Amino acid sequence: MFQDLRYAVRLLLRSPGFTLFALLALGVGIGANVMVFSVLDAVLLRGLPAPQAERLVRVYEEWEPAWPYSLASAPNYLDWQKRNNTFSELAACRPKDLTLERSAGPERVKGAAVSPNYIRLLGVSPTVGRSFLANEDQIGSSHVVILSEGICRELYGSTENVTGRFIRLNAESYQVVGVMPYGFHFPDETIQLWIPLAFKESELANRGNRWLSVYGRLKPEVTMAQASQEMSRIAGNLAREYPKEQTGFGIRLTSLQEDMVGSERPGLLLLQAAVGCLLLIASINLANLLLSRSLNRWRELAIRASLGASRSRLVRQSLVESLVLGALGGVVGIGLASLGVGSFKLIAKSLLPRVSEISIDPGVLAFAVGLSISVGVLCGLAPSLAAPKQPQTGLRESLRGSIGSLGQGLLRNILVVSQIGGALVVLSCAGLLLRSFLNLRGSDPGIQYSERTLTATIALPPVRYQDDASVRTFYRVIQEKLNQSSEVKSSGAITFLPLTPGDCDISFQVVGQAPFAQGQQPVAQYRVVSGDYFQAAGIPLLAGRFFNQQDGPDSPHRILINRSLAARFWKTPLAALGNQIENEDGWSATIIGVVGDVHHFGLGVPVRDEYYYPLSQSPHYGVGGTSDALEMALVLRAKDGVNPGTLVPILHQIVNQTDSTVALSRVNVWSQLIADSIGNRRLDLWLVGAFALATMALSAIGLYSVISYGVTQRSREIAVRSALGASRLEIFRLILLRALRLVALGMIIGLFASFCVCGLLQSLLYGVTPVDPETLIGVSCMLLVISLFANYFPAQRAMRISPTTALREG
Amino acid sequence: MNSELRTVNPEPLIHLDGIKKVFLTDEIETHALAGIYLKILQGEYVAIAGPSGCGKSTLLSILGLLDSPSEGAYRLNGRQVEQLKLSERARIRNREIGFIFQSFNLIGDLTVYENVELPLTYRGEMPRSERKQRVLESLDRVGMSHRQRHYPNQLSGGQQQRVAVARALVGSPSILLADEPTGNLDSKNGDAVMDLLSELHQGGATICMVTHDSRFAGYADRTVHLFDGQIVAENNENEGEPAPRAVGG
Ligand SMILES: Nc1ncnc2c1ncn2[C@@H]1O[C@H](COP(=O)(O)OP(=O)(O)OP(=O)(O)O)[C@@H](O)[C@H]1O
Ligand SMILES: [Mg+2]
Questions:
Q1: What is the ipTM of this complex?
Q2: Residue B240: how many CB atoms within 10 A of its CB?
Q3: Percent of chain B with pLDDT over 90
């Protein structure tokens, strides 16, 4: 055995070119697999980093079909907490951006307002200090904060002696009571601090205002199904007790892990499949190369007439050799993977959940080792299978004077055909992703001039802006100042910038039409706008007028609606004008205009019904009851020919002049935000595309090596044909046709496999069907061209074989 | 094919005039042929003999247009051929020359029939039926028509060489070139192949054969002795007209 090992190493050293190629191919193949697996493992497979994480669930309100996953209202959350017997804890959370005052000026940080038991529910405790106390959810005692380790070090340089210190959030003092362990950022990676969630009177009074993320920890012995049953019962009771708000509402439970990462599953599985294909093709390549080498070797063996034990010896030898290759390839692969994981974490930070948990841990290493061994065995298998039962058969044949191969090329051909097929499948997937991505990027978001528009999120500290008038004044003042600037064409603001996250909707009735039954009312998204938002965003007016000075606090309530809402009730925009709607809070307004549809929820995501009301008339800032209207996105369209980036200092200056405690965040050109909104698709595309190209390159190399080897093997046959009068062109054609037969067969198999596989991509596609003829034809042509290219050189070489070779013996 | 031409053409079928061949490998020049003057007449049966490495195969490959001379003139059938383009040479190989190799060189993936048909497939314009007729005729002449569906490795060495002869004949070439056609055969099979060649010669074929074996050289009309790339002697087996002979260069 040891002798075999030494021999194998010697053989590998003797042909450094082959060894280098093999290690590179295997290294890339194994590396890609290990990298993707480490992502898959961290994101999808591994339990959440909390004790008994499988007992953690997300609790949603559910109202089909408008709100399959709805947040919960404060009264409902409290009732659930009181009435359930299946959860050991039920906690609520509201992520919110806060303005942190630092020496350098105000800065927006991501925080979460959480119920006191939230951290206990997760089973994690602070490394420094304490969790929130039960009474800290009361207004008055709620000015305490727990920091993430990251922001704590940023603020104080260490985590020592920080409890008891004060920081200023939203212009109020908060006392630091604890610091969470490194890496803890629940509910998402961006959260930097936690404050207690203290319900205001208005929030406790409004059961229809759903704004809380609710999490639960199942009691031991309680199953998900039992919990679901109990919660449904509770939902039923609540619906009877509060028919106005709760009719039609149920409660939906999902495991927390599924809730966090479920949507990433198709993309990640696709990636894993793509790299699996890549490795398979790399292995097949290697198997093929090893096969050629072993064929030469058994001829040697046969000639030396060392028969008898030689076959098993050869088999063992080739297995040891390929295992050594596999092991070395594994080492290279792990090296590449750790580099890859590093860059992936940087790129994917904001695109995937749980990115910080990605690492090459023992589980991933075990996967890598298993993969290396399987690859080793797989590659060694081919030469073993091809080894002749009796080596002398090979000898006899070569002496008997027939040339060209019979049968021995079959295995190699099968390998090449499967490579081509595999490459085609991966390429088709990449092609479909590319088309979807392009479709999506090219799809009309409903806004215009985004590359000339600067956006920034602005947040007013609630303590300083307690009444409507002060908020309205602030926005009016800065918009006036902005409009005076010579670089700004128009400016406005909106709650929840289109194509960035943010969702708030409400049910309503159309005044004058037969009311919809409880639980079946239509639902619309609503947004507060100020200034010339529609002009700045390039949203067209289809009928009526935009908001203007006449729509003041004391005028009748007026709204604009989108085309989709107008079409639903009045067919045409014009017909919608003058009608009134009344929302579930009893607030009614007249439609004065209809504007174009905007894809608020992302490129390619269907438009929902929507209405806008002016900041000057907004019924309450309480979008979600939490003064969220105090946070608006500014939209500044630069004058023609002005780079929107130049508006940044102007904006900062104007805001600072107006109120220096106000922080700006997410200052960006709008088109950049739109591009970011499909960032994870771009990432998928890049990765799958890169792996597909690697797969294609490997299969082309495989094809090349097989055809090239075939030319060497058949050089005598080629010489004989040439001696018999075949022209060089005919020789060229002969080789090319042989290769093309394999390519064609591979492509047929690949196309068939694509039909089967691409259907699985459905959820990742946009504007293209899984079986897309154009994509399939496109990638087939590409593969064909690459294959022809790979075969050109062997065919060229064949053409140059001198016919005198036919006269040589041996 | 052009039998009419053959009978009226007063020129020798093959005329070599001062053919030299130099191989350059790793800066070393090998003078494989050092000035060959040779005429082969229509219908002649010439044997080329000489020690190993003396240039026999090289001479044959130049005769068969597999290779071109470094120097000298070569007229085949009255046509100057040493400067022709590759494609033209391939055409002439296909039509004028039939090769028989020491190691048969049948193509293992093709049946006996397909092997014999091969030279005809390179002609392009010949209809399938005519090809079939020619192949069967040719196989018939070597007594192998009953084996047309076999693969080469299902045949004995002697049978394989007879198939190879059929393949050389199928295009009705002007001359058959054979490099040690019996080299890989036992003496019985070797004799059979030699008998076959004699028979073809009787039928009018022009043959040029390289051989080690003086016994087999006796089958030929004339034997050319080669040494160090030059013709050093010629002897005529039959009492016919002495062939022109030249030494030196
Ligand atoms: N392609 C080549 N490159 C270099 N040298 C060559 C080449 N072909 C032949 N030679 C040299 O030319 C000389 C003549 O070779 P050739 O094959 O014609 O000999 P031969 O008479 O056929 O020998 P044998 O009886 O062994 O077949 C030899 O010295 C040989 O080494
Ligand atoms: Mg020779």
A1: 0.88
A2: 11
A3: 59
Query: DSSP secondary structure string, A113-130?
Result: EE-TTHHHHHT---SEE-
Q: Flag if A802 and B67 touch (Cβ within 8 Å).
A: yes
Please name which of A73, A192, A181, A67 lies closest in space to residue A127, comparing C-alpha atoms: A181
Nearest CA among A668, A687, A664, A50 for reference residue A352: A687
Residue type, A425: V
Identify the residue whose tokens are 């076999």.
Answer: B150
Q: What residue type is assigned to position A162 of the chain?
A: V
CATH architecture type of domain B43-64+97-244: 3-Layer(aba) Sandwich (3.40)
> Considering only CA atoms, which of A122, A110, A120 is closest in space to residue A151?
A110
Residue B153 has its nearest CB partner, among A402, A720, A809, at A402
Atom 31 of ligand 1, residue of closest alpha carbon: B53
Output DSSP code: residue B242: P
Q: What is the pLDDT of residues B207-219, one digit of tens each?
A: 999 987 777 888 8
Atom 3 of ligand 1, residue of closest alpha carbon = B23
Residue B141 amino acid letter: R
Q: Is B48 in the pocket of ligand 1 (CB under 6 A)?
A: no
Q: Which two tokens stand for residue B12?
A: 């020798």
| Cis amide prior to A187 (ω within 30 degrees) | yes
Q: Give the A window 36-75 contacts with B, CB below 8 Å.
A: none
* Position A299 confidence tier, pLDDT thresholds 50, 70, 90: low
Length of chain A as a residue count = 810
CB of B53 within 6 A of ligand 1: the answer is yes
Work out whether strand B45-49 and strand B206-210 pair parallel, antiparallel, or are unpaired. Answer: parallel
Q: Which helix (H) or strand (E) holds B232?
A: strand B230-236
Regarding the beta carbon of B30 and ligand 1, being less than 6 Å apart is answered yes
Decide whether any atom of ligand 1 lies within 6 Å of the B25 Cβ: yes
Helices A310-348 & A265-303 angle (0-180, nearest 10) = 150
Q: What is the pLDDT of residues B153-194, one digit of tens each?
A: 889 889 999 999 999 999 999 999 999 998 888 888 888 899
Render pLDDT for B127-162 as a digit per residue (tens, 0 to 9). 999 999 999 999 999 999 999 999 988 898 899 999
Q: Which ligand is nearest to the CA of B48?
A: 1
pLDDT tens digits along B79-138: 999 888 988 999 999 999 999 998 888 988 889 999 999 999 988 788 999 999 999 999
Best of B48, B101, B110, B170 to disrupt the A interface (most A CBs within 10 Å) is: B101
Residue A89 has pLDDT above 50, yes or no: yes
Q: How far apart are CA A448 and CA A536, in angstroms?
A: 9
Angle between the N-to-C axes of helices A728-758 and A679-713, in degrees from 0 to 180, rounded to the nearest 10: 150
- From the CB of residue A295, how many other CB atoms can be counted at a distance below 10 Å? 22
pLDDT of B173 reads 92
Q: To the nearest 10°, the Cα dihedral for A757, A760, A763, A769?
A: 40
* Model pLDDT, residue A70: 87
Q: Considering chain A, what percentage of its residues have pLDDT values greater than 90?
A: 34
- The pLDDT confidence band at residue B234, using thresholds 50, 70 and 90, is confident
**Token pair of A189 as six digits:** 């990676």
Domain ranges of chain B: 43-64+97-244
- At residue B6, the pLDDT reads 47
Q: What residue type is A585 in one-letter code?
A: D
Instruction: Report the pLDDT value the prediction gives residue A625, as an integer from 0 to 100.
Output: 42
Cα dihedral A281, A282, A288, A291 sign: negative
Tokens 């040479």 sit on residue: B89
Would the CA dihedral through A239, A245, A250, A251 be positive or negative?
A: negative
Sequence ranges of the domains in chain A: 410-442+680-810, 461-661
In this complex, the residue of A397, A802, A807 whose CB is nearest that of residue B101 is A807
What is the per-residue DSSP string for A490-540? Answer: EEEEESS-TTSS---EEEEEETTSPPPPTT---EEEEEEEEETHHHHHTPP
Rounded-to-integer distance, Cα B12 and Cα B30, Å: 29
